[in-house]
Amino acid sequence: MSGTRVSEIDSEFDDYIRNTTTVLETGTPAGSVRLGLTTAENDDWVAFRDAWIVVYPKYTNLSTRTKTITSQKNQLKKDFSNFAKQPLKRIDASENITPEDRDIFNLPLRDTTPTRRGAITDVPFGSLTGKGGGMMEVRARREVDATRSSKHPLADVIELRYKIMDNGSTPPDQGGDDDFPTPENCPNIVSSKSALWRVSLGSAARGKSVLGYLRWVNLSNPANNSGWSLPIIGIIS
After folding, report:
1. Sequence-distant (≥ 6) Cβ neighbours of residue 109 within 8 angstroms
2. CA-to-CA distance for 34 and 104, rounded, in angstroms?
């Protein structure tokens, strides 16, 4: 794979998207469940594969290749590579990943030598901002960085747990209602090495609100993770 997770070489990309999707779709439980992907992530991954297996044969067949087909093929590869970054991080960190998975997803074994770092005692501040098309911008920062996004120096990644609320454009009440979601009740999990990133929630969720919690995560020693932030809420646009 030329030293990268998702190759830009057409033939290698073709093998990669087909083989990885097969892993996600097979097994009991399915590979997507075993490796910790959300339903939305798995559906998007499969959709990329389905689109690719339609456009790529049209590109490789010189009688059907056009500038439009070439552009579609190149854009699909680019979009998939950007989309796959977050799911691949979680697959890489999964306790259920096998050596065969690592080979198929091109995720070499990480250095598991424990890093001596202390517990993270403060929690993130953050925000969720709709950016259109079902895209949400996630911003995290330390309390000492009031004017810019930032990551705690002892954290490997920032984790967001969130729930899409089926309540139109009205955010859920924060007045202590028993139904108010806790981090443990938020079914969707994403993480990022960057303190500013975007999450696709899908255009079908536009107009709904999303509630989430952030925490700093130490991948080598979860006992040193921070606590959860206060809830953050955004409207999906």
Report:
1. 99, 102
2. 15
Tens of pLDDT, residues 171-187: 444 444 445 689 998 99
Query: What would the pLDDT profile of 201-231 be if each residue is shown by its tens digit?
Result: 988 888 999 999 999 999 989 999 999 999 9
Residue in this structure with the two tokens 């030329």, named with its chain if needed: 2
Give the pTM: 0.50
Contact 212, 161 (CB under 8 A): yes
Return the sign of the alpha-carbon dihedral for residues 194, 218, 4, 61. Answer: negative
Lookup: tokens for 8? 């830009």
Report the C-alpha gap between 98 and 61 in whole angstroms.
36
Q: Report how far residue 1's alpha carbon sits from residue 6's, in angstroms, rounded to the nearest whole number.
A: 7
Angle at 102 between CA 97 and CA 108, to 5 degrees: 120
* Length of the chain (residues): 237
Q: What is the CATH number of domain 125-235?
A: 2.60.40.10
Tokens (6 digits) for 226:
């921070």
Mean pLDDT to the nearest integer, 141-169: 86
Structure tokens at 211: 């509630």
Domain boundaries, the chain: 10-105, 125-235
SS3 content of the chain, % helix, strand, coil (to 5): 35, 20, 45
